[in-house]
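User: Sequence in, structure out. Go.
Assistant: Echoing your sequence, followed by the structure tokens.
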Amino acid sequence: MTENIQHTTKIPCHFSKSDLSRIIEMAWDDKTPFEAIKLNFNCSEREVINLMKKTLKRGSYRKWRQRVNGRKAKHLKKLRLHA
């Protein structure tokens, strides 16, 4: 029997309220890549996604994910390949 094991990433609790607010603001901005958030706050893309999921309303999170999913500007690697 195969078990489904889900790897969950917890939101780093070492952020201040102002840091969390800034991370959310940067994530919401279409032109700010996840790499910039990683550089400034040492918060991975997966952690940002989890943070957004836990802090936004369900509908807002879904809209954000649809907008961000596959967007070149949110991923520097994709942006450089197609520039």
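User: And one key feature?
Assistant: Residues 17-28 form the longest helix (12 residues).
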